[in-house]
Structures are given as C-alpha cells and as structure tokens.
Amino acid sequence: MSVVDRSASRQSDADAELAAAAAMVAASSALRAGARAPVFMLADASGRQVALEQLLDAGPVVLHFFRGAWCSFGEESLAGFSATYQQVLALGASAIAIAPPCKVGTHSAAMPIPELRDVDMKVARAYGLAFDLPVGLRPGYEALGYTPPSTRKAGTWLVPLPATYLLDRDGTVALAFIDVDYRRHFEPESLLNALSALQARHSTARHRPALVGERHQT
C-alpha cells in the first residue's frame, strides 16, 4: 500500500469514527420508551396522506424508520420487518415504514408494509433520529443515491438513524429500538412479544371487575 493509500485509509477510518460518535450522540437523545411520540402526517408513494393520530385511533402502531432504498442494509432491514407485517396486523396493530426520499425509488421486491416519505426528514428529526455526516463520507452516500434533506443550518448534511418503535394507543412509546450500527437489525420476536404483552394488558384492563366506587367511562 502506498503512502497516499495509507493516508486515505486513515482518513476514511477517522471519518467512520466521527460518524459513529455523531450517531451515538443522536441515539442518546432520541425518543425513548415512556415518552409521548410526536404526531405527524406523511404521504406514501402514491401521494395518499397518512396521519399517525388516525392509526392510533384503531390501536397500537409500529413505526419502522429505515435508511431508504439507496442503502442495501436498509433494504435488508425493511425486508426483515415486512416478513412480520402480517403477524403485527394479526395482533391488532398497524405498521408503517418511514424513510427520506432518495434517487433510488424502487425496491428489489414488493413490500407489503406501507412506506411513507419523510420529506426533509422532519419526522425523523422530531424523533431525534438524525445526525450530521462527516464531509469525507458524503460523496460515497451521494454515489449510492442518497439525497440529504434541506435544513436551515448551512453545511448540515443529515442522515437517518434506523429505529423501530411500538406505540400504545395513547401515543406513548411502549418499546424503542435505536441502534447506531445500521448493519444490525431489530429482532422481530422482541417486537411481537412486546406487542402481545401490550395487547394482553389492554385485554386484562377491559375485563377487570370494577372496584367499589369506580366509575366507568361511557
């Protein structure tokens, strides 16, 4: 390896370390279990508007934030999550995938889960799922088809943090999975177990005998 190659390799390693550090900072302040999830309205690929509040009216909601079709790891994440989509529906919840728009607009295979376009990553930022990418890594992302969102802060180049959330009917985060290593994926069994437990608690509450002096809501 030449001196130039070694220098480029060291710079790439340094940029990767900076990116990992920035991702960790973002993850440390991202939305966590017990918090109230920000509501939003986003459009799908056909332009149909989907409102989180309306989904919550029908039951728990699973939000799957992924990096987008430009990222092979993001595609693997979405494919893995889509494989459990019917099980999520069978447990009485709805689920949506959220990603920023990019130049790569199609998946290698059709996905059953509705996918919403997070223009300018407004929802991802509201959930704390964004960090500034080091300058040295930006050309590589652009070559893959990633388009950074527009922001008010000059020089900012945001990329999304993958995350999966399970929201209770009142919008409270029942489960949050945020990982700074986008190559890892959330285990579906953990989500399904959490959703089953959540629905079991609601079922128990509905069938719990009324205490003396307790009033029922109508």
Automatic annotation (TrEMBL):
* GO terms assigned for molecular function: antioxidant activity; oxidoreductase activity
Q: Can you tell which superkingdom this protein's organism belongs to?
A: Bacteria
Q: Which PROSITE patterns match?
A: THIOREDOXIN_2
> Which Pfam family would be a valid example here?
AhpC-TSA
Residue ranges of every copy of the Thioredoxin domain listed in the record: 31-200
Could you identify this protein by its name? Answer: Thioredoxin domain-containing protein
Q: Which organism is it from?
A: Paraburkholderia ultramafica
